[in-house]
Write a structure and sequence with these properties.
249 residues, alpha/beta, four-stranded mixed beta sheet, 12 helices, 12% strand, elongated
Amino acid sequence: TDTQSDRNRECKGQGIANIGAGLMGGMAGCAMIGQSIINIKSGGRGRLSTFVAGTLLILMVVFMDEWIRQIPMAALVAVMIMVSIGTFSWESVRNLKKHPLSTNIVMIATVAVVVATHNLALGVFVGVLLASLFFANKVARFMLVKRDSERHGEVRTYQVRGQVFFASAEQFFAGFDFKEVVEKVVIDLTHAHFWDITAVTALDKVVIKFRREGTEVELIGLNEASATIVDRFGVHDKPEEVEKLLAGH
């Protein structure tokens, strides 16, 4: 309909309604397929169409149940089959060759789990989990540790770019040359962001390893959010915690 909507508001409303339905012994559901899409395809564009559909539905459930139960189940099955055919996105099958492999895996896994378990929630959970893992893998590839081509006297500068978290922490640690003999190492974190404890631990290991080699380390450009998590969980400036970390390795 070329109109904007607040999806967070829709999600909250649907969640509250489904909780209420469950507490009263009803079945949770979503009106996107059965009402919204069919309404749009039938010409309904305003709120009145949704209101009429909801009103008629509650009237049938509460007051017309004796008549509704006379409809043969086979007829309802036929109706639902036609609804499935009409609302299914056939282009999604044709586009399997065009879409990225990760997207196809998420879609196929979600459908497979729903069909196998008859549980939409499990299918959505598997799809979201796989999508999150694929996204983390893609973001980790954009993390780069760049060493200056020339060092300034006895100072070597490393520039870190990208997101440092559990998926890119190992790559971050591997980007430093601990065998080079220099008096001081400057790690420029202006274009980097540290997200979790794994990233902070990787930074601690880098700093401590350089210091064990007799090299002075200076961190510059740490943004406020990253500085907060590094100050809270980092141990490279806490001698008593450094000993514990070294003892654990």
